[in-house]
Predict the structure.
Amino acid sequence: MDDKNISQAVISRLPRYLRYLGELKDSNVERISSQELSQLMNVTASQIRQDFNNFGGFGQQGYGYKVNFLYDEIAKILGINKTHHLIIVGAGNLGQALANYMNFERRGFHFTGIFDCNESLYGKKIRDMYVQPMENLETFVKDNDIDIAVLTIPKTGAVSVADKLVKCGVKAFWNFAHVDLNVPSDIVVENVHLSDSLMKLTYNITRKEQETDTQ
């Protein structure tokens, strides 16, 4: 499998496949066809087969897909068949909300520390973590084998914090700060701009309204 030949559109659909397959597992469904999965997900059966063929297919014509097997294989592709250790930098409302979201741990994402520069937050317990000062950040990362950092801080401090974390061995950033991180090419960055997502929503609302007006 050559990841370079797999489109981002296909990759972006994998978590959704995993979510539906997880629900099927919980319902003790053992086998499902592409047509049945298509009806559940509102994706064409052809698209499902094309997506899975990028990774070897997984199914058998006339038999369908074994749900447990397919779930495990997609989990491996997404890299969640192992535990990832994360920290959150920024203990404001967004950072606390992410720390409290239980479903991350079910997917193998284990938050081990949360940090902030606001002294009034030091020692506050969030889930099973206590907010620590930024002065502890580098030592904590080195001592706890942290591979992913979640940045929920203002953009003014995000770049310098990212530089420090890269030097400490962090491999990836889930970046909620509205700034591009200047990190080496081997560091993975997933930028999340909440306002962009909201504007996509309002664009689609506007488009639907225009379609209604022209009918």
In short: The radius of gyration is 21 Å.
